[in-house]
Design goal:
The structure holds two protein chains of two kinds. Chain A is 44% helix and 11% strand. By secondary structure, chain A is α/β, with parallel strands linked by helices. Chain A has helices at 16-29, 57-69, 78-93, 95-104, 120-128, 130-136, 158-161, 171-178, 203-218, 229-237, 249-257; strands spanning 2-6, 32-35, 73-75, 117-119, 145-148, 182-184, 223-226, 245-248. By secondary structure, chain B is mainly α. Chain B has helices spanning 5-16, 28-32, 43-51, 55-59, 72-76, 83-95, 118-128. The chains are: A alpha/beta, B mainly alpha. Chain A binds chain B through residues 8-10, 13-15, 41, 43-45, 47-52, 55, 77, 79, 152, 155-158, 166-167, 191-192, 194-201, 204, 208, 228-230, 232-233, 236-237, and chain B through 14-17, 34-35, 38, 65-66, 68-72, 74-75, 84-85, 88-89, 92, 102-103, 107, 111, 113, 115-124, 126-128.
Chain lengths: 262, 130
């Protein structure tokens, strides 16, 4: 199975591990991530004001590219996924945005939200299946206690993201379990790390990250995983409390599938 | 043309797409907000300020730069009022004005470090500048 793939700006630079291990793992699981041509940065935050159009066009171009190839569009970075999924929802359901966005572009035919957007974890859950994943594991992560850090953008708003239950998600825990590790559930796994505010304000993200780490450690987690480069950065660099190691979901996956270079 | 407070309140309703009149003042948005302690005007108050057409106070609020757009208030609102959308609309109203940018390119070099992800710069510029 070949999917159109939108890596996004950070996966080409500071989060190359997230990208590299995803591609290697995908091949091991029997699907291919085909990077779309000439993609543009999604902007990293969904433009919420109802009169914003130009800031949504890079997402529409990526969506339309996948549509023209007849492929589903796979994302990895939580921010890219959030932006592209929400813009797609606008293109499906908000006539004003759909009309004005199409007016900006010269597409072969107007784009109306036809593309299916899937996060990498959704491909594994919904297309591969966690049982099949478990069978492909060659180095089970037995004995490791791993907490999933969801953050905000994969889950909320739940009615549009439709990723999982926004208050009590299980997809990342199921993923951890399929890899042979023990999934540790803790209360702050879907609370914000501070997000983009950490560029100018270190104090508030520090407080939030300390809460996340303390909550995970209290429940027995020894390490955390995330899909988001900004969450990873904030979890590693903000706060002054106890630190658990944080890695990307795909690094863990590549390790368990035996495709991670040592 | 100079906009009155009433004009701005109407514009905020349009830009946010939020129906502030549905709010039943339960305060769940503010109770869910991770930035609550840092804010001078809290998420539930943003709703009331728009209803009361008291927009100047919102434009001056430091809460605009404390909201994380984490959507906890949007998710947990029992009336689907979407306070984060109102805060975003006010933030846009500020940064769209000349001289309203909260982040300038000249500030960036000294904020960088070796591991800072591009995502952080892209999102901060989207939130703080036009």
């Amino acid at each position: 199975m070949v999917y159109s793939y939108y890596p996004g700006c950070t996966l080409k630079n500071k989060a190359q591990d997230l990208d590299k291990y995803a591609r290697m793992s995908a091949e091991a699981l029997g699907f291919t991530l085909e990077e779309i041509q000439e993609w543009q940065c999604c902007g990293a935050v969904y433009p919420m004001a109802t009169d914003e159009i130009a800031t949504k066009l890079s997402a529409v171009r990526a969506l339309n590219d996948a549509k023209e190839k007849g492929q589903d569009l796979v994302t990895l970075c939580s921010a890219c996924h959030h932006v592209i999924k929400r813009v797609n929802d606008d293109m499906q359901n908000v006539e004003d945005i759909r009309t004005r966005a199409n007016n900006y572009m010269e597409l072969k035919e107007p784009y109306s939200g036809e593309t299916k957007v899937l996060h990498f974890l959704e491909v594994i859950r919904d297309r591969i299946g966690f049982d099949a994943l478990k069978e492909k594991v060659v180095k089970p992560l037995t004995g490791r206690k791993i907490g999933a850090y969801y953050g905000c953008m994969l889950l909320r708003p739940g009615n549009i993201m439709a990723f999982d239950d926004p208050e009590n998600p299980t997809i990342m825990e199921d993923f951890i379990s399929a890899l042979g590790a023990e999934a540790v559930v803790y209360p702050y796994r879907n609370e914000c790390c501070g997000g983009y505010i950490s560029l100018k304000d270190k104090e508030l993200p520090g407080k939030l990250v300390d809460q996340v780490m303390a909550s995970a450690a209290y429940k027995g987690a020894e390490e955390l995983i995330t899909a988001c480069p900004l969450c990873l950065y904030n979890l590693k660099h903000s706060g002054s409390g106890k630190k658990l190691t944080v890695s990307y979901i795909t690094e863990l996956l590549a390790e368990a599938l035996g495709v991670k270079e040592e | 043309m100079h906009k009155t407070e009433k004009d701005k309140a109407i514009l905020l309703r349009e830009m946010s797409g939020a129906n502030v009149d549905k709010c039943m003042k339960c305060g769940k948005c503010s109770a869910s907000c991770p930035s609550y302690d840092e804010m001078d005007i809290r998420p539930h108050q943003f709703v009331s300020y728009v209803q009361n057409e008291d927009v100047e106070a919102l434009l001056e609020s430091k809460s605009l730069w404390k909201c994380l757009s984490c959507f906890a208030c949007v998710e947990r609102c029992p009336r689907d009022v979407k306070p984060a959308m109102i805060i975003e609309a006010v933030r846009q109203m500020v940064v769209r004005q000349r001289g309203g940018n909260y982040l300038l390119p000249d500030e960036v070099p000294e904020l960088l470090d070796e591991e800072l992800p591009q995502q952080l710069l892209a999102s901060a510029f989207r939130k703080y500048s036009k």
